[in-house]
Amino acid sequence: MQLGKNGVLSILGENIYPGESKEVNFDVANLHTSGAVNVPVIIERAKKPGPTVLFTAGIHGDEVNGTEIVRQLIAKGINKPKIGTIICMPVINIFGFINLKREFPDGRDLNRVFPGSKSGSLASRVAYKLVKDIIPHADLIIDFHTGGSGRFNAPQLRYSKHKTNFDELARVFGAPFVLYSSNLSKSFRSTCNKLGKPLLLFEGGKSFHIDEVVTNSGVNGSKRILKHLGMLRTIFKSTKPKNACIFITDSKWQRAKFSGMFKASIAVGSFVEKDAIIGNITDPYGKLNYFVRASNTGYIINVNESPIVYQGDALFHISTMLK
After folding, report:
1. How far apart, in whole angstroms, are the C-alpha atoms of residue 254 and residue 269?
2. Which of 175, 232, 240, 292 has the most Cβ atoms closer than 10 angstroms to its Cβ?
């Protein structure tokens, strides 16, 4: 964590002193109408020294459930720490958020251009600024995402299987599932890993949708992490998760064998036995009624909620191996 000799946090051209609250602007480019784009960064500092935790969301502009989780952390005052510093960025891809699109106006996925470039595309410049001006201050990053294209994710944490030192933090967070997954090239997670910055990636829900169960999982998990670090104020309660985390070391997608109208008959997060009926595909004319059976025994960690599917579309994400 980069602090001055007197404990001043210098970030984005602003100085924030211990015990101070400040909203600073993560400014990259104006809209095409020349209007200013304000990307607020909310910073809360306790008088007592301690870790700096960074909560981020909205790397993809259509993943509003993640933004809602960080919004609640701010609105409820959970982001005001007992010790240390909490930095909140509810919407990183403000351009996509405005247009309810996953990508930037230049068509690029922000999560595929890290660590970015000072003179590159718009998305690349945002990535560069985030890595240069924000990430160096963080001791721990929790990044909130959702499923895409109508696919609903069960609340879960994701990190590389090589980062088993994250297992303790994952148990503290208490999401129902932990999915070991490789770091994608040029992703935010991969870049933070290379910089030695621990990052827990939370997935839950789907795009264009706010789900109360998923939101509660993200907010409660964040409170548990803050309590674990000694940062959660005593006015907030942090209850233990009802069930232990299920660690998934391998999984696979089950895909549609036919095109048609699809309906899942199993809830996300459920445990299923091989060959159990978990959905069906029909056609508009009443001629086809194909029952989708589980390809293997495991937990359903993602369900496609689109009413129309094509042959080869992903329907269910099912665990194949547990830790």
Report:
1. 15
2. 175
- Rounded distance, CA 44 to CA 26, Å? 16
- Provide the residue ranges of all domains of the chain, joining segments of one domain with +: 9-228, 250-322
Q: Compute the distance between CA of residue 248 and CA of residue 83 in angstroms, rounded to an integer.
A: 34
Q: What is the dihedral of CA 168, 173, 179, 183, to 10 degrees?
A: -80
What does the pLDDT look like over 259-302, one tens digit per residue? Answer: 999 999 999 999 999 999 999 999 999 999 999 999 999 999 99
Distance of CA 189 to the CA centre of its chain: 10
DSSP for 47-110 reads: SS---EEEEEE-SSTT-HHHHHHHHHHHHTTTTS-SSSEEEEES-S-HHHHHHT-SS-TTS--G
The CATH topology of domain 250-322 is OB fold (Dihydrolipoamide Acetyltransferase, E2P) (2.40.50)
Answer yes or no: CATH 2.20.28.10 is held by domain 9-228. Answer: no
Q: What is the total residue count of the chain?
A: 323
31 token code pair: 């809209």
Q: Report pTM.
A: 0.95
SS3 167: helix
Residue 2 pLDDT greater than 60, yes or no: no
Interatomic CA distance for residues 194 and 178, integer angstroms: 21
Alpha-carbon gap, residue 318 to 83, rounded angstroms = 40
Encoded tokens for 120: 């590159």
Maximum CA pair distance of the chain?
Answer: 75
The pairing of strands 85-89 and 199-206 is unpaired
Cβ atoms of 104 and 93 closer than 8 Å:
yes
Give the separation between CA 208 and CA 146, rounded to whole angstroms: 9
The residue-averaged pLDDT of 138-144 equals: 97
Residue 134 DSSP one-character state: I
CA-CA distance, 223 to 30, in Å (whole number)?
A: 35
